[in-house]
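Posting this for the archive.
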Amino acid sequence: MSRAVLAAILGLLATVLITVQAQQAHAAVIGDDYPASVAKKNVDPWRFYSGECTSFVAWRINHQLGVDFNDFWLVHWGNASNWKHAAQSSAVKATGVSVDHTPNVGAIAWWAAGSAGSSSGHVAWVAVVNDSSITIEEYNYLHHHKYDVRTIDRGDRRWPTGFIHFPGNVIVNRSVPKVIGTAQVGQTLQATTGLWTVSGKTFSYQWLAGGQPIAGATRNTFLVTPDYLGKTITVRVTASKKGYPSAQATSDQTAAVAVGSFTNSTPPTIVGMPRVGASIGVQPGSWSPAASYSYQWFVNHKRVDGATTTSFAPDASKLGAEINVRVIATATGYHKKKAWATPVTIARGQMRMVSRPVVTGAVRLGQTLSAQPPRFNISPTRIRYQWYAEGVPVTRATGRSIVLKQAQIGKKITVLATAAAPGYRNAPARSVPTAAVTRGTVTFAQKVRVSGMRKVGKVLTAHVPSTSPSWARLHYQWLRNGKAIADATGRTYRTVDADIAHHISVRVTATATSWLPGHTAVARTGVIRSKPVVTATAVVSGTKHRYVTVKLLVDAPHVRYEHGAATVSEGSHEWGPGDVFHSRGTVVVGTLAPGRHHLVIQFTGAGATLYGRTELDVTTR
């Protein structure tokens, strides 16, 4: 195959490819964007008469294609009928302008003078290209000096005579993008888009390091990380617009990425109470970027060996010393940076009491009280004592013990223990006050006893033996089953129904000024019993009505059920006993002689009831 034939085939394929691409429908503008300020003038900025078809197309060539076009661009373009001739001039063709019969979005539709589409020649802007039609935008065709949109089918006799293609149909970079910023670890670089032809474009970005694309780096900014230390950085900008092939331009490379520098916006700070025995710490401050930190503590500007953590506990030897800490920030790709905290001066420590002193011993005249030393968070080297009676220091009572004397009777005793240690403030600790100092405890010569009948309504009396001292005052409290009875605080107590089946006792307390109260063991009575009411009935049965059975009912206040035994007697005769259970009982008398009989019924309780009795007359035949 000859070279000429091969070239012809390749040209035909290229033409078909271009045609297919051109048949895809895209929109370029559609809408009257012709400047109103231009329409008001006689001659437009491109040296055409305003409002004419040539003026509108010149506006679109400048504004949409980015070509600095005017009536004398390389040649004289003149009226629309002359535009094909001008476009085919050698000077214009050298810029890439071409003329053919294939429409493209952004091409210039041209009608020769005397054609079916125009009698005097006409130009318009191709906005949409479809398989069977094109849509054009124009001025001064359907309406004088006005904007119109028309769609022309391919078979229409008004189809354009030809199409003029400016290189502005592709996006062209006029000035390459630039990288703004310093190529240094931790810095953010920003990309400019550069200058391009065609308005309404969108841009995408791809950053490169050492000429290789960086994964994920597709924004207009780029944070330089240590991964790119020593490499040059460029950015590739892609300009895109619907209906146009995308175009790319790459910036000049930066200098090799340099080692970064930390920014310390807030210096380190020593936190905590700077005093002996207390632990102080350090907050590293605010750094950008985030870093790892190392620490070194200093005392009076001298490094302390081993003090390289975030905390430092000054001992007594550091009292009054100046303490400071140095923080060093490190991170891969960054220069190390040091920062110092504001120094602090170590004050005396504060001993913290763990437990107060405890006073032991009997708080009575002539007895010895002792102080158990208080405990602190550190061990004091010395503790001094001072005893107090009702808050007043006791003269010469400065040891760990004190003997109670006449002057302390009736007063509460405390002890103040003051601890001391090198480098620390003295720490006072006071005991809890004791009870008032007494002469002794009131005592009873014998036990208290109670007299009186254990029966509802009877009076019980407490008998108290002599006390020591004899002038002690007595206080009574009567108890029911061990619990205090309201308002029963006298020496005597009259029992009531509520006491039935309960034990009654009395508690006596003896008090005297400057003496501890004396308590006696509770004196206890037996169970209080209730007086029952006995009701009896006789049942006479048998063929001769002489067989007698006595039924009885026992009732006592505050006693639910009565239990016990019952007997029936007449003169010297006695029948029974019969059991009484749940307050009811039966006694069988048997056969009696005919006549009237006077029967005596007696009940003896087994629980909370006393003796009960009733009488009954029975007549037999």
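The radius of gyration is 62 Å. The chain is about 5% helix and 40% strand.
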